[in-house]
Design a protein that fits this description.
417 residues, alpha/beta, 46% helix, 17% strand, globular, binds nicotinamide-adenine-dinucleotide
């Protein structure tokens, strides 16, 4: 049976790695639990005078190594188990990169496309006010995720700062430069993906610019990586958003498509006779060299994995591949660069943003990208070494490193009291 509950999948991933590394069963049980979860009701007066009540969450999986860190997602199918899984993945991601943060995540079950800007602002402000006691620069620092952006982060910052009676830039990352945001943060996740895939190609003796690319999701992460690879000279042959996908074997004009979607349009409405409309399901099984899922979790599963035809899967999204599919891909020799490594550029530059806010001293873009390159590729090399030594998947290798670091931190601290 297909297991698609993200939290059960995240727990299963810990079981797999615990077995591989012989982790103390007590620590395994500890890591499979979350520290805390807050469920809140968000009543909003809609523009038409009706009252709607939305449900929101903020979860801390582990704050053993520092304050929680993780995005806020606004989407119609957000639920507690999804947020718990996303919080857990953040713990491993921060640990893998040696960032002094734990794992957290938040979300509101809402379709933001159905809200006016004013309704969205009221929703963000009330949600922030409901979770205010468990966020803060020393507690848990939110950031953007699906359907949230620098404007939403500005409202979170404003609510928090008004309650504190002073401006607190360090409460969120991914905010506008004018409010203490960092250069390079918006592009950071895509840029990290680009550094990682370039290095992976070198390891496999492949020339990056000769690879054909398919990208699912054309938002912050998918749009940025598609554009960086397009600028590199790669043929980006298919992309998609929530409305569907476009395919052209000779390569899509990514720059024009970005202008189109950034003006608020859907890909399915783009007019170019050369392009074929395809579904998101077809996109995932399109033959290519590098497949980049950059939308949602559970996209490559037991149901479609046999039809996936690529050399490398670069996980831009969190949790796009299920453990069942992982097994099949490993046996087929398809290299899966796991989310906790591949898409960690976002939290890495969020860390730079946090440091810049605390020091009140801001870096130039060259320094940001150089430090990002250094940190993410150091993690890549560490993962690659374990992967080669043990002949396991890149995901299991990354988990061994990330989980060991957390396990050691717990052992040093001891279990309170
Ligand atoms: P976004 O809202 O900017 O873009 C999401 C994209 O996915 C949009 O193009 C949307 O149309 C598309 N999409 C939504 N539902 C879809 C569906 N059912 N089928 C196909 N496409 C769909 O979000 P984002 O920030 O780019 O996040 C995308 C993924 O990357 C998420 O899994 C997120 O957790 C992960 N991620 C984001 C960051 C970051 O810095 N933003 C960092 C690490 C990981």
């Amino acid at each position: 049976m297909l297991e698609l509950n993200p939290f059960k999948i995240a727990q299963k991933q810990i079981d797999i790695v615990s077995k591989e590394m012989g982790l103390d069963p007590n620590i395994t049980r500890y890591l499979k639990r979350i520290e805390r979860a807050l469920i809140v009701s968000i009543p909003i007066m809609m523009d038409d005078g009706s009252l709607q009540i939305f449900e929101g969450y903020r979860v801390h999986h582990s704050t053993v190594r520092g304050p929680g860190k993780g995005g806020i997602r606004f989407a119609p199918n957000v639920n507690l188990d999804e947020v718990k899984a996303l919080a857990m993945w953040m713990t491993w991601k921060c640990s893998l990169l040696k960032l002094p943060f734990g794992g957290a995540k938040g979300g509101v079950c809402v379709d933001p496309r159905k809200l006016s800007k004013k309704e969205l602002e009221r929703l963000t402000r009330r949600y922030t006010s409901e979770i205010i006691n468990i966020i803060g620069p020393e507690i848990d620092i939110p950031a953007p995720d699906i359907n949230t952006n620098a404007q939403i982060m500005s409202w979170v910052l404003d609510v928090y700062s008004m309650q504190k009676g002073r401006t607190v830039p360090g409460v969120v990352t991914g905010k506008p430069i004018e409010l203490g945001g960092s250069l390079g943060r918006e592009q950071a996740t895509g840029r990290g993906l680009y550094f990682v895939v370039g290095t992976m190609c070198k390891k496999l003796n492949l020339t990056l610019k000769s690879q054909s690319i398919v990208v699912q999701g054309f938002g912050n992460v998918g749009g940025t990586i598609a554009n960086l690879l397009f600028e590199e000279g790669c043929n980006v042959i298919a992309i998609s958003d929530i409305s569907g996908g476009l395919y052209f074997s000779k390569g899509l004009d990514i720059d024009k498509l970005l202008d189109w979607t950034r003006s608020g349009n859907y890909l399915k409405d783009y007019q170019d006779d050369r392009y074929k409309l395809i579904s998101n399901d077809d996109l995932l099984t399109t033959e290519c060299d590098i497949l980049i899922p950059a939308a949602l979790e559970n996209q490559i599963t037991g149901a479609n994995v046999d039809d996936v035809k690529c050399k490398i899967i670069l996980e831009g999204a969190n949790g796009p591949t299920t453990p069942e599919a992982d097994n099949v891909l490993f046996n087929k020799g398809i290299h899966v660069i796991p989310d906790i490594l591949a898409n960690s550029g976002g939290v890495c530059v969020s860390y730079f943003e946090y440091v810049q806010d605390i020091r009140a001293y801001f870096w130039d873009l060259e320094r940001i990208n150089k430090e990002l390159n250094r940190i993410i590729l150091e993690a890549f090399e560490e993962v690659y070494l374990v992967y080669k030594e043990r002949n396991i998947s890149l995901r299991t290798a990354a988990y061994i490193i990330a989980v060991s670091r957390i396990a050691r931190a717990i052992e040093f601290r001891g279990i309170f009291p």
